[in-house]
Structure formats: C-alpha cells, structure tokens
Amino acid sequence: STKIDHKDNMMTMRFFIAIATLLVVASADNANWCGATPHNYSGTNCPTETSTCCQYPWSPNGWGCCPIANAICCPGSYTCCPQGTTCQNSGSSWQVVTECIPNDSLPQTPVQAPAATVNGTQICKIGVSRPFDTTRRTVMVLGDSVSIGYTPYIASILERDYDVQHTPNSGDGGSCETAYGLKCLDFFLSSSSGEPQHPDLIMFNFGLHNLLPNGSHTIPGQSDLASNYIGPLTNITRRLKQLNGTKLLFAITSAYLCSVETDDIVLSLNEQARNLMAAEGIPTVDLHAAIINKCGPVPNKDCFGAANCWCPHCPTGYEWLANSTIVPAIEKQFV
What we know:
Helix content: 25-40%
Structural class: alpha/beta
Number of strands: 15
Strand content: 15-25%
C-alpha cells in the first residue's frame, strides 16, 4: 500500500478523532456515562442491560464496568456483587476477595438476588480511550502488564504506518488471568465509551496470571490456577476469530528467569497455547524463546544490566523485545 506523508497523516488523524468524538457525543442521550467522565472516547460508558458503572482505581478516568446489570459496587473499588446482596471483603487493594451475602431483608427487586452466597466479581477494566487512526494500519495489543510495558515501543517503532494501542487501557495486570479476560472481553474490544473496535490486527497474550499450582489461593481478576488456563483461552480465541477482517497473532508468554519452578509452569502453559493456536490456524510469536536466547537459561537474575529482569517484568528489555521480536512478527502479518 502507498505510504502516507507523516505530517499529513497526523493532521488526518486529528480530524478523524474530532469527527469520532462528535459522533460519540451525539449519541450521549442513550449512553450510561460513568460519574463525571467526558461524553467522548476518554469517558467510560457501561451498557445498562449487561453492566454497571463502578469506580476503579487503575482506570485512567477512575471508572470501570462491573459485568452485572444493576450491581452493587463493593468497598475498595475492585469488586462488585449482584443486587440484593451485601459485599463482604477479605484482603485489601488488588488482593481483595469478595463474597456476596444475600440480604433477605431487602424487598423484591427487578433483578433476582442469588439464594446463597456467591463470589464477588472483579470490575472490568476499560478499553482504548481514543479512536484508531484508520489512515494507517491499526493494531490492538491485548495482554498483561508485560505487554503494557512493551506496547509503547511497538507504537513508536511502527508509528509511521501503524496505529498501535493497548487494551485494556489501565495499569495493574492488564488483561490478567484467562477467566477475567473472557469475562471482560467485550469491554476490552470496545473503546471505554462503548464503541466497538475493528483493528486490522489483534496481538493477544495470556499466561503470567495463571501460574498457581492446584490448591493455591486464587484472587479473581489477578491470579488463577494453571489448570484453569486453557479453557477460557480457547473461548477467547474462538471469540476473536469471529471478528471479521481482523488478523490475529498470539504472543507466547515471556520467560520467568528468576525461578525454574515458575518458568516450568510458563513452559507448560506455552505448550498448551501453541497447540491451541496451531489447531485454530493462528500464527504465534515466541517471546519466551527470544528472551532465553538473549539472556541465557533459567535461573538468571541479571539480564540487560538489571536485577530480576524478566521476573516477570524488565523495563530495560522492553524496547529490545519490541524491536527484535514483536515488530517483525506484526509486519509479517501484512506481507
């Protein structure tokens, strides 16, 4: 395809953003905007039929969506419960686990309360907070906190011809474990304002939040058992395959250099993911192999001149990983 002059490209992008913002504002009368967030792509809109606005500390605008209609937002702003229940938290901050206790004293509500105690639900993080510039190829990176680290380098390297954004648009663990990713996938694939996104390519990854052995204490929306990895990932993959016109690329999970035991779990999950992607006809890029080839075998607590690099994060190595491994794999999908 013909490359577009960089300055003209930027001007076109600003024009496109302005038009997209006007379109979102025009539909604001039918929207469920959260709090005082702007009625545009940087605001949060949760569909009332399927979700509820809840404050969320890792969202850029302070709001996320509980994937339950008419829900109760729990103290601490990480979890939510069905209407007709009371939140009972244990732990705090991102480590909170919530039980939803039925409140028999409440009058009958439009949403039937559960008859017994159920687990609380993690609030879903928001998707991208600006429209894609469709004068360039568009790439969505869907993944965990390691992918949050390397995405800005991908975007910078490919800036001339590609518009790259990360989803969810948040800090913390990004898309976290596969069960959370599946539950929140619709939000991740939309803008924070609820506009469905149709990127040319989605590079997705899950793995680092499914490293717990059986019998371990799990934290929904943060960490889950390795045995719970492949089921939700299979459903995520098949949902993504239904997106017409969107190419898919799976990133094999990066190495965990500090621990042989933990990296062995990563390798097991990677083999499951590799087999799934082969069966579904989806190409992969192997981040684990790239890191081992660069840094040496596990255990290795000193790579790129930084202690505990790739355990699992490595800020000094993100640019290298983007430039050497990820960018070539993305460009290959458009050859």
